[in-house]
Specification:
Blueprint lengths: L3 E7 L10 E7 L7 E11 L1 H8 L15 E8 L11 E4 L2 E3 L5 H4 L10 E2 L11 E5 L3 E2 L7 H4 L5 H11 L7 E5 L3 H12 L3 E5 L3 H9 L4 E3 L9 E6 L6 H7 L1 E9 L12 H5 L4 E4 L5 H13 L6 E5 L3 H9 L6 E5 L14
Parallel strand pairs: 10-11, 10-13, 11-12, 13-14, 14-15, 16-17
Antiparallel strand pairs: 1-2, 3-4, 3-8, 3-17, 4-5, 5-9, 6-7
Helix pairs in contact: 4-5, 4-9
Bound molecules: zinc ion (2 copies).
The site of one zinc ion has 5 residues, from loops.
Length: 349
């Protein structure tokens, strides 16, 4: 085991133009008694990393290593860990601690835990060659996907799944999807596999083309009306001005769920045009471990086409800048150099 590793840190949050990510050589972390140490095989680049780097989210851990869509190979297990062995593949996601005692945890809503902690925000994440995870928050990963394909499932996939649950789409219903990045393109496929009619509303022509290829019934600009009223909608774009647009597109009784952790300001709503006739507006806050396990199980049974743009770990700053500039198709994924003494890990099949 090497003593040091390559990593990226957010030394001082700032707009991407001021390059808030800094390359660093850090000690390889030592796993605590309840943790796994994984060698990072792939780490997805999520919009939340951008919010951490640019300071939309307050600093929780100074000089944090971002990244919470980590596909890793277990290289060490803490003394108290059971059920995991060196050599297994493990997923490290956003949620990494809940208290288990607060009223939310006791009610099965650990995503709202008052003492929750997050990978790549409260603790160092996967923009590095190695990372730790509490074993109780590590995921088993489905077969049939490469490391690079699995990475975006761990946040984009799980959060999209929760947003779909929160949208309460009826069986065979009409779903609107606003914005079509990493999370949306996975959620659309899951909804289609479950019998939904999906209409995608997004700015970029290339994303609209991808939506149609993945089976969307229609794809149009974000501010246009869908071809039919919607039973449910999910807002993936972090754009508050789309909230009234999506609410106006809902049929009576419909629900809009907002998937992002951060949204620009929502303009004033008009009660008659946007909410009356029992339309509902809901947020989505992180996920429970149960959401994660259920989604990864579904991803194992319905093969999802995961569109990725791989970047070497050494180009993490460029990957995040490309995400900020909407220049990434599907999901950006960081790939560290493979360890020299090991055989290559499995790739796309
Ligand atoms: Zn709690
Ligand atoms: Zn994320």
């Amino acid at each position: 085991m090497p003593e040091t590793m390559s990593a990226w840190q957010v030394v001082e949050p700032a707009p991407m133009a001021r390059r808030p990510l800094r390359a660093a050589t850090l000690p390889v972390p030592t796993p605590a008694a309840d943790e796994l140490l994984v060698r990072v095989l792939a780490c997805g680049v999520c919009r939340t990393d951008l919010h951490v780097a640019e300071g939309d989210l307050p600093v929780h851990r100074p000089a944090v290593v971002p990244g919470h869509e980590v596909v890793g190979r277990v290289v060490a297990v803490g003394a108290e860990v059971t059920g995991w062995a060196v050599g297994e593949r493990a997923g490290v996601a956003w949620l990494r601690h809940t208290c288990g005692r607060c009223r939310y945890c006791r009610a099965g809503a650990e995503n709202l835990c008052l003492a929750s902690r997050y990978t790549g925000w409260d603790a160092d994440g996967g923009y590095a060659q190695y990372a730790t995870v509490p074993a109780g928050y590590a995921y088993r990963l489905p077969a049939g996907y490469s490391d690079v394909q699995l990475a975006p499932l761990l946040c984009a996939g799980i959060i999209g799944y929760r947003a779909l649950l929160r949208a309460e789409l009826p069986a065979g219903g009409r779903l609107g999807i606003y914005g079509f990045g990493a999370s949306a393109h996975l959620t659309a496929q899951l909804a289609i596999a479950q019998g939904a009619t999906v209409h995608v509303l997004t700015r970029a022509a290339a994303a609209r083309q991808l939506a149609l290829e993945l089976g969307a019934a229609s794809a149009g600009p974000a501010d246009a009306a869908p071809p039919e009223p919607l039973d449910a909608a999910i807002l993936f774009a972090p754009v508050g001005t789309l909230v009234p647009v999506a609410l106006a597109a809902l049929d009576a009784g419909g629900t809009l769920s907002v998937a992002g952790i951060h949204l620009s300001d929502i303009p004033p709503l008009n009660y008659q045009r946007h909410l009356f006739r029992e339309r509902t507006l809901r947020s989505v806050t992180a996920n429970t471990r149960d959401d994660g396990r259920r989604f990864l199980d579904l991803a194992g049974r319905h093969h999802l086409h995961v569109t990725t743009t791989p970047y070497p770990l050494a180009q993490a700053d460029r990957a995040l800048a490309d995400l900020a500039g909407d220049r990434v198709e599907g999901a950006a994924v960081l790939v560290p150099d493979p360890a020299p003494a090991e055989p290559a890990t499995e790739r796309a099949r």
